[in-house]
């Protein structure tokens, strides 16, 4: 029953507010109140269901859009005026001016050491009796070059001026005199570089086993061999020599690494090199890396490690494992990712490791002289990889190992300092030209190299030289 109130001469229906719907008035019956409550409950239930269905439809629409790439209208119109979902993602990777945003570098892959079964101790090590049963011949080295002529004056070079004819002959494993660095100019000309103090040369001439490294241009920190892992025998009988230039020596002194009275910092004997032979510090570093038989003329074995590595293994155990046990005269690890020179060339260009034109000249020359791609499926492939990881080298100072080292250095001297480009060519040509005189090279796994020493990053990355 509806209530009325009088307004002037008219009877109007009464408008009840909130209180009239909550409180019970005398003229309201119980049935009417129940109807009102049901209406309110029905309204609340309908509102919840409506929100549920709206949310469900929104979720389904989002899934459909993501999966099927529903075309939507965006401010960057194509001919049709629409962009697909994939196209929108591609457009979002561009800046406001249309330039592509720099992509994040992929994470660096991680490589780990593997187990290397060294002997427990150096006490019972004995050099195999037949270990010296390698190719025997006599090598001499060009010590000095004279003037060519007055019309073509000779400009002295550390590597000398090897002709292509002399280069070709030098690959024969026979009695001969070859270019192998340390070439002096005519009498009266200044030194061609890599000058050492006489006391240091006397020390190095007495070494029978040498471990060496170098830092030029303050490119690295000094990383000392882990003394607790080096035997007393090796500490007494192995020479640990670190070659540095004067700039590096000054930097080390500022950092608190000052040589003692004997010229040592830890196990390292610090040998200062003056008058560096190359402006390219990387190329200068190839002198102690490849020519250890020239720097240590009395040494029977040598180990080279890059300055980014800290030696964690006794050197005599290394020589026994990689040379004596395998009957090898030279040992170097394969690269951890690349195995073909073609891949190495592309990587050097991509990272601007060296002048691209110089790389092309070297690579074209090698292809014209028979260098082929590495084929991992070829059962006759002489090496497990054509690209080495040259930061760790173990070698006996045999005639063949010395010849290979000189030949490899001459390629670096003639072309680029990227020695990984010239390794396979040098080895394959030496093998091809001496079928009756094998060269016993052990290319071991990179994970074994990582077990020998702890790897660090260089302090600074040296810029490639200008062409």
UniProtKB/TrEMBL annotation:
Is Transmembrane given among the entry's keywords?
yes
Q: Where is the TOD1/MUCI70 glycosyltransferase-like domain?
A: 139-458
Instruction: State the UniProt keywords alphabetically.
Output: Membrane, Transmembrane, Transmembrane helix
Kindly list the residue ranges recorded as spanning the membrane: 50-74
Q: Which InterPro entries match?
A: TOD1_MUCI70 (IPR006852), TOD1_MUCI70_glycTrfase_dom (IPR048354)
Q: What Pfam family does this protein match (any one)?
A: TOD1_MUCI70
- The keyword tRNA processing belongs to this UniProt entry's keyword annotation: no
Name under which the protein is recorded:
TOD1/MUCI70 glycosyltransferase-like domain-containing protein
